[in-house]
Amino acid sequence: MQQQLSDHDRRRLDARVAEAEKRTGIQIVLSVIQRSDSYVELPWKAFALGASAAGLILLVLSWRFPAWHPDVPALFMVVGMLACGALPALLCVMIPRFAKWFLSDYRAEVEVRQYAKSLFLDRQLFDTRNRSGMLLLVSLFERRVVILPDKGLESRLREEDIRNMIAAMTPLLKRNDIAAAFDAGLDYLSDKLTVTSPEAHDDELPNEIIEEKGV
User: Fold this and answer.
1) Distance between CA atoms of 12 and 177, rounded to whole angstroms?
2) Whose CB has fewer CB within 10 Å in the chain, the N or C terminal residue?
3) What are all long-range contacts of 81-87, with beta carbons under 8 Å and residues at least 24 apart?
4) Rounded Cα–Cα distance for residues 21 and 15 (Å)
5) In this structure, what are the phi and psi dihedrals at residue 180, rounded to the nearest 5 degrees?
């Protein structure tokens, strides 16, 4: 898998994570995922839309101009409708940005959150003394941010804070500026949860950024 972050950005973000952990007492893990689901239904949605649009155009032409196709066999019309459906379906497979037009916000949100929860468990980010781990995950295809704090942070980080962090990161992610999106999240976290007398703590979770292709 091609890395989405340069070596310079990775080193800088690793240092920023270490600094934010000292300021907040939280174990922070960053993750970049290509896509959180295969979304096999998207090409079929595109096919249905293309074929339906072609069929509607033929119906309107037949109704408005009854004599426009006296010599055109019905088979050619059917093939034309199927071709109009196959083209957008093929574009969905080849061009991710085009496929996104057929992905609902709700479906994207559910799949990215589900992937984040699975990653949290698979990487055992709960394995800290005070259950103070936190995952900041961005999924590139969906352009979504998910923040998962462990149970030990419930009293320090409210739902409103999480929404504000996501709101700060999302515009930068939509511009494909992944490093700046992480910077915005870490800035908010450091400002919001800075402890007055941070205790010395072991680095219980690796600072290295997790990059995966996803599903």
Assistant:
1) 14
2) N
3) 81/51, 81/54, 81/55, 82/51, 84/50, 84/51, 84/53, 84/54, 85/46, 85/47, 85/48, 85/49, 85/50, 85/51, 85/52, 85/54, 86/47, 86/50, 87/50
4) 10
5) -65, -35
Distance separating alpha carbons of residues 24 and 28, to the nearest angstrom: 10
**Cα Dmax for the chain:** 86
Report the alpha-carbon distance of residue 106 to residue 44 in Å, rounded.
18
* pLDDT tens readout for residues 115-139: 999 999 999 999 888 899 999 999 9
Distance of CA 102 to the CA centre of its chain: 15
Q: Is the pLDDT of residue 64 over 80?
A: no
CB count within 10 Å of CB 209 equals: 21
Residues 6 or more apart whose CB falls under 8 angstroms from that of 75 comprise: none
Single pTM value for the model: 0.85
49's CB contacts (< 8 A; 6+ apart) are 85, 88, 102
Q: What is the pLDDT of residues 98-117, one digit of tens each?
A: 999 999 999 999 999 999 99
Write down the residue that tokens 């920023």 correspond to: 16
Residue with tokens 């340069």: 6
Tokens of 186: 């870490």
Lowest mean pLDDT among 130-134, 199-203, 204-208: 199-203
